Amino acid sequence: xxxxxxxxxxxxxxxxxxxxxxxxxxxxxxxxxxxxxxxxxxxxxxxx
Length: 48
Prior knowledge:
Strand order of the largest sheet: 1-2-3
Largest sheet: 3 strands, antiparallel
Helix content: under 10%
Structural class: mainly beta
Distance between the termini: 38 Å
Mean pLDDT: 84
Number of helices: 0
Strand content: over 45%
């Protein structure tokens, strides 16, 4: 993996109204976390 630290893992969850990410080292501890919310997009009224 060029340019990346192989001793870390990045988890990303993209949902309907937010995105969340967590950075973990290989031993398990969480090193960083981030979340951002955004409005749900609907093409037509009542659609989810």
